[in-house]
């Protein structure tokens, strides 16, 4: 049996255009897969030990999936008969900034699931299932794995697996329902501004779950306003109305900041500089008090907008990065 052939899984990241937390609070959210990918590839270095740090890490060589590599393999051993005690060694490369609200952790986890299940089928280790795991099963397993660690929602898993733009309806546990799918207009580009400040959602999710249990009026207002912004964003994508989309994203950011305190002074400084210098409205993607902002512009304007933004942000936040990208089609 040939086990030297590399198995490679490539997974996009995602931006949340509206509706952070609504994938598990209830209500609608809009996700967009981005062509900033995480690649997980099995190597010929044999098997690797499975350390378990508290956070995911992207690297290369044996154990390149960080602490998640061993944990994902153990998860799969409980569901696929015939897997050996140790995972194959993997190399990981990610184009998405880490801890930025762009679901780089989920992309890594989904990539590990994808690579490991393909490896098991290729090497004949899986005796209980035919080669290939359905994407719906892959999404469910990845969600269950990550929910056990973070107690969050399932937007990210569906977004990176399905690709394109999704309108989701959230639920308290389990994957959200996909209400509609759309191809993002090819004449639009996406600009990601990495603030170089890390986000951390673990405490955020705990606080919001407490708000939910206490029926906090601020949370209720956020749910109402974010749901409305999602409706407007989805309608604008369908109508190819760029001004309508950017206005909806601005509304989504405003309610995130004002009702739930998800933004920070650094992020607001970057937003103000982008609007002033390039006329570009940026929205925070993901909760957790840091991370990346995203904006949408016409493809033909992308080179100039990128250059102007880089010059402007270098003056106020030299560590920030401007990353031009585009929507990623799917499914993976």
Automatic annotation (TrEMBL):
GO terms for biological process: isopentenyl diphosphate biosynthetic process, mevalonate pathway. Residues 89-164 form the GHMP kinase N-terminal domain. Residues 45-66 are annotated as: Disordered. Keywords: ATP-binding, Cytoplasm, Kinase, Lipid biosynthesis, Lipid metabolism, Magnesium, Nucleotide-binding, Transferase. Pathway: Isoprenoid biosynthesis; isopentenyl diphosphate biosynthesis via mevalonate pathway; isopentenyl diphosphate from (R)-mevalonate: step 1/3. Transmembrane segments: none annotated. Gene3D superfamilies: 3.30.230.10, GHMP kinase, C-terminal domain (3.30.70.890). GO terms for cellular component: cytosol. The keyword Lipid metabolism applies. This is Galactokinase. It comes from Streptomyces inusitatus.
């Amino acid at each position: 049996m040939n086990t030297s052939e590399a198995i490679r899984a490539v997974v996009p990241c995602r931006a949340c255009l509206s509706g952070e937390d609504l994938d598990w609070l209830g209500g609608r959210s809009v996700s967009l897969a981005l062509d900033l990918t995480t690649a997980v590839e099995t190597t010929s270095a044999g098997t690797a030990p499975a350390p378990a740090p508290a956070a995911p890490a992207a690297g290369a060589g044996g154990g390149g999936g960080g602490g998640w590599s061993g944990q994902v393999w153990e998860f799969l051993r409980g569901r696929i008969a015939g897997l050996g005690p140790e995972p194959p060694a993997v190399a990981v490369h990610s184009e998405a900034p880490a801890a930025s609200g762009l679901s780089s952790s989920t992309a890594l986890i989904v990539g590990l699931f994808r690579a490991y299940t393909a490896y098991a089928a290729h090497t004949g280790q899986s005796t209980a299932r035919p080669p290939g795991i359905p994407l719906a099963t892959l999404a469910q397993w990845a969600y269950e794995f990550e929910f056990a660690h973070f107690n969050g929602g399932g937007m990210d898993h569906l977004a990176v697996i399905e690709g394109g733009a999704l309108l989701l309806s959230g639920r308290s546990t389990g994957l959200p329902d996909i209400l509609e799918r759309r191809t993002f207009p090819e004449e639009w580009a996406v600009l990601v501004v990495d603030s170089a400040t890390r986000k951390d959602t673990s405490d955020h999710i705990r606080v919001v779950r407490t708000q939910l249990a206490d029926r906090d009026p601020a949370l209720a207002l956020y749910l109402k306003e974010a749901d409305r912004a999602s409706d407007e964003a989805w309608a604008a994508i369908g109508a190819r109305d760029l001004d309508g989309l950017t206005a909806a994203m601005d509304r989504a950011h405003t309610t995130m900041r004002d009702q739930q305190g998800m933004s920070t002074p650094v992020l607001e400084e970057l937003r103000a500089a982008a609007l002033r210098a390039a006329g570009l409205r940026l929205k925070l993607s993901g909760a957790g008090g840091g991370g990346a902002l995203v904006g949408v512009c016409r493809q033909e304007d992308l080179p100039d907008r990128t250059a102007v933004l880089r010059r402007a942000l270098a003056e106020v936040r030299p560590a920030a990065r401007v990353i031009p990208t585009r929507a990623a089609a799917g499914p993976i």
